[in-house]
Amino acid sequence: MRGLCLAAALLVALASGGCKAKKKATAAVTEGLTGGVLVYSDDFQRDKLGPDWLSRSGRWEVKDGWLHCRGDRNEGAWLNVPLPERVRVEFDARSESDDGDLKFEIFATEQRHQTGYIVIMGGWKNTLSIIARLNEHGEDRMEADASVEKGRVYHMTAVRTDGALRWFVDGRLVLQYADEEPVRGAYFGFNDWNADVWFDNLKVSKL
């Protein structure tokens, strides 16, 4: 009887340890999704892009309270305000194209395409979602099969508190890129190739 009790106790202890490990892993993944200090926000409730943004192509516009573009060919709309090293960036996004292709770039060393991490939802004719480092076609990119529903508004969140960049859509982790040599750039930008894309409610929080 005593042996059975000890065995039962051991099983309970192991089960408890497993639960704690799972909670620890979950906590690590969701770290940074809440808290922090808001250091920048933009709801695009105005007529022009304004001095906080750099758009070399001139194709980005503020329309109906959203930042809008179609056919920018990866020139991008770049935020002139530098990002904190530990940060959460969140915003709403939608595509009015069947191609999807919602794209942003983060921790870029320059306000140019492919100088940091490239995050794309529904790229390549809405067939693939990725996080890439410096090259969106690189073999080291992380991939998922998430696609974009035309006209649907998604809430996107990017978090980095250590070497890993984590990307969430509507609160669900889509991909993370664990980088042994993280790109330490400070620029954020919205980007577009040829889709009809819209962005709103940008918030940047220091963690």
Summarize, please.
This protein has 207 residues and is α+β, with helices and mostly antiparallel strands.
User: What share of the residues lie within helices?
Assistant: 10-25%
Total number of helices: 2
Say which CATH homologous superfamily is assigned.
Exo-inulinase, domain 1
Choose one word for the global shape. globular
- Any idea what the radius of gyration is? 20 Å
Quaternary organization = single chain
Helix/strand/pairing class, anyone? alpha+beta
What is CATH's topology name? Jelly Rolls
CATH class: Mainly Beta
Task: Report the uncertain regions.
Answer: 1-16
Strand portion: 35-45%
Look at the structure and give the mean pLDDT: 90
Structure summary, number of beta strands: 15
Largest sheet: 8 strands, antiparallel
| CATH architecture field | Sandwich
Q: Structurally, how many domains make up the residues?
A: 1
Write the layout of secondary structure elements.
Layout: H1 2-30, E1 37-42, E2 53-54, E3 61-63, E4 66-70, E5 77-79, E6 87-95, E7 102-108, E8 117-122, H2 123-126, E9 128-133, E10 142-144, E11 154-160, E12 164-169, E13 172-178, E14 187-191, E15 196-206
Antiparallel strand pairs: 1-15, 2-5, 3-4, 4-15, 5-14, 6-11, 6-15, 7-8, 7-14, 8-9, 9-10, 11-12, 12-13
